[in-house]
Amino acid sequence: MYPDRNQMQEVVDRVRRIETRLTKYLKEQGFDTHPARITFDRGDVVVPSKDCSLREIISVNPEDWDGEVFIMLGPDHIATLQVE
Asked: H-helix or E-strand containing 51?
């Protein structure tokens, strides 16, 4: 049997409270809790990890940009996109 909507909402609410408490604790311990963002920097797309989707990478690329876009992970070049 499937859980009803109220039960699912209760689970969602509890998970949010846990996340809020965990974030607060991590900040108190000195951890940076802001998620790393994908950025476009002078023709390069800088990604925080290899887990980024192609859709996310393309979304930061300016619409008027033509040519090659280098995908960078820190100082490492990991891919190239040809934008037309």
From this structure: none
- In 1-84, alpha helices (H): 5-28, 54-59
- Pick the residue with more confidence: 70 or 1? 70
| Rounded average pLDDT over 76-84 | 89
Distance CA(79)–CA(72), nearest Å, equals 7
Structural domain boundaries in the chain: 1-33, 39-83
Q: pLDDT by residue (tens digit) across 40-59?
A: 988 899 999 888 888 998 89
Rounded distance between C-alpha atoms, residue 20 and residue 25, angstroms: 9
Distance CA 84, CA 71 (A): 16
- What distance in Å separates the CA atoms of residue 59 and residue 65, rounded to the nearest whole number? 12
